[in-house]
Amino acid sequence: MISRDRAWGVVPSGFKKVVDEHATLMIVREDVAEFLTIEECTKRDHKDNKDSTVFEGRARLREVQLRNGDTALIRSYRHGGLFRHLLHGIFFTWPPRPFRELAITEEVRRRGIPTVEVLGACVKPVWGPFYRGWLVTRQLDGGEDLWTAMRDGLVLQTGAKKVFDAVAGSLRDLHREGIYHRDLNLKNILVRRESDGVKGYIIDFDRAMLFLGGVPPTMVQRNLDRLLRSANKLDPKRQYLSANDWKMFVDSYYGRNADEP
């Protein structure tokens, strides 16, 4: 039996708890609670789901129009690697991963880092301590992941330096505020044109770590290395992110001039 505190974890201010007759748990933002139901949140995903979106990580996100006019994106939790085939979408870590990610994302927003707005998270018991989980976010209108922006033209249209400066600035602020992203890659960084230029948004804080003070330099380098590995994996021929582009990004992160060593 999981204790009540472990079942919920930290519930941020502005959110409420909901439980249905099947013991499915939902933490939902109070201002959308009447528009987002547990049934909608926990709907099983299908490969041919017409509501799926172009955004995807381990699983494609499902798009839902809420009655208040918001567009919500619902992500079901999936394992990576070997566990993906053994356990599929079943987890047993407590507090549940969706609730933990909701709380961390809200803390990231509180610290002033651009990220998406979480609307809710759901946990559906399977058996004993095992569960399936979902996270619901508000769609970032006009946003696209960095890989798509590099491949489909936004970087060329806007200028690589503007885009990389925006992303480097958001990542630098993230580290300065003591937030370490354990799965940083080109698909969980969003970019968007805004009235004052381009803005970079960091998303997917499922396994993030919070520090008192800034992130240690060795872990900063680990994050940058992880991001470069992601680029090499998605773009092995370096058609969209050249060595010079990467140097431009790193120089921007550290606030160096392009001609400095």
Walk me through this protein's architecture.
This protein is α+β, with helices and mostly antiparallel strands. It folds into 2 domains: 135 residues, Phosphorylase Kinase, domain 1 (2-Layer Sandwich), CATH 3.30.200; 111 residues, Transferase(Phosphotransferase), domain 1 (Orthogonal Bundle), CATH 1.10.510. The chain has 9 helices and 12 strands. The strands form 3 sheets. It has a 7-stranded antiparallel sheet with strand order 1-2-6-7-5-4-3. Helix 7 crosses helix 9. The longest helix is centred in the last third of the chain and has 18 residues. The radius of gyration is 19 Å and the shape is globular.
Strand content: 15-25%
Q: CATH top level of the largest domain?
A: Alpha Beta
CATH architecture of the largest domain: 2-Layer Sandwich
Rg to the nearest angstrom?
19 Å
Number of domains: 2
Q: The biggest beta sheet, please?
A: 7 strands, antiparallel
Name the helix and strand elements from N-terminus to C-terminus, one letter apiece: HEEHEEEHHEEEHHHEEEEHH
Q: In terms of structural class, how would the helical and strand content be classed?
A: alpha+beta
- Return residue spans where pLDDT drops below 50 for at least 5 consecutive residues: 46-58
- How many strand elements? 12
Measured distance between first and last alpha carbons: 57 Å
Query: Strands of the largest sheet, in order across it?
Result: 1-2-6-7-5-4-3
- Helix content range: 25-40%
CATH fold-level assignment of the largest domain: Phosphorylase Kinase, domain 1
Shape: globular
Would you tell me the overall average pLDDT? 89
Helix segment tally: 9
